[in-house]
Amino acid sequence: MLTKMDIMAVEVVFGELLQGVKNKREEEIILDYWKHLPKIDNDTEIIISAGIYSHKNKLIDKGVGLIDSIIIMHGIKTNSKIWTLDTNFFKAIPSELIYPANI
What we know:
103 residues
């Protein structure tokens, strides 16, 4: 929950959100959330680790791209739960990282 600070922001997710904004107001809202949410520290090799993880688990064949692989890797490295509505992504998340609301 946001009020409990149980949510951690991942930079690539906000990058994807900003990529699809429709107007300046949407951009401001997203950037305001980015500014105020606690963030997962960027591991300098998270993208490399995510690429290796994706390859080993054949995630690209399951319709899961690099951004989602990075999110999974953040979950693994920080032992954080992942919440999603994306069914392809949901199937690729290790069961111990699935946020209970997904089930």
